[in-house]
Amino acid sequence: MSAEDHYLDAIEALDNGNREEALNQAYKAVKLDPEHADAWQVISDSHLNPNGQPDNLIDASKSLSAVKKIVNLDPSRIDMWVRGGRLLADELGLMIDALEWWQEVRHHAPDEVTPLIEQATIMADLGLYQEGRERIETILNENMDVATSQYGRVHQLLGLFNSAIQQDQNQYFKPWEKRHPGWLAIESKMRKPPVSETFIFMLVTVPILFGVVILSNMLAGEGFTAFCLTSIVIFVAVIAGMRFTKNMFRSINRPAFNLLRAMNFESSTGYSIISEEIKTSVLYMYILQRKPIAWQERMLLIVEENTSLPKNWKLELPDFESHLDEIGYIEDGDEQSPFWETGDGAEPHEEE
Known about the structure:
Blueprint: H1 3-15, H2 19-32, H3 37-47, H4 57-73, H5 78-91, H6 95-108, H7 114-126, H8 129-141, H9 148-166, H10 181-189, H11 197-219, H12 224-252, H13 254-269, H14 276-279, H15 282-289, H16 293-305, H17 322-328, E1 329-332, E2 335-338
Antiparallel strand pairs: 1-2
Helix pairs in contact: 1-2, 1-3, 2-3, 3-4, 4-5, 4-16, 5-6, 6-7, 6-17, 7-8, 7-9, 8-9, 10-13, 11-12
């Protein structure tokens, strides 16, 4: 049988829900033809659970390996770039690797907004607010086309970065600093799970709404005018309550957010920085149990290895301008054009 025959059998098996047979046939196809990108996609698809169910560490890693094969063969596969970024950041917790991944996307699709948004989101999770704002500002400065569905996310991230940068940078929790005050805050709250936003809203807003209803009957009386007035007051109280709740939620649960950042740092670097006492706490287990299965399994391996953070360690970020030199834009007067549109038939350069 040819590689194409094995690929077609793999597709049929996958359509029938037989993931094991699909993998068997797809691996036979790529063994005969290592450049069969569609067969590699079947491998990636088959290693992922259907209907968005959580994947274990082995399956997520194998699916990612297949995705890397696909984008090496066909860099125009934006869908596979997106899947790879999701697997790296969300499933495996490799956030720094995900930054590199999305920068590689910019080499092949420099006008795409998604890589910049994803990089900014990762930096927000790592507490790199200045660097994250630069990613969002790149979108605005280059006047890039932003889809309607992405406007809200861009606006939210920009607001988050601007608000954080205006604060004292010494207040930013830096988990790689052993003596940072954020660790004391975590230790003071680690014996309890975080307080839910809904609970805070109910605790703050419901008594106010109850008081508005009682007072409206006493002061405004009955009738359509009283009903309209009461409705407006209730609406204003709910909006104000929601805003107050968001601020209160962030303030009360700051130690939980700090611990989450520390856990993201561990998963991204492979270094263990969280104390044994915190790792056995209620708060740590609460956060861990809400992470994807693959993320949990990888985190347990990091805890088991217990590799200490080297002295004088520094966070190294990708060169976010690398796409301009590699494939980016060759200056010709005031105009710039993508390298692969110059008519010389060359393919875009890709790092190994």
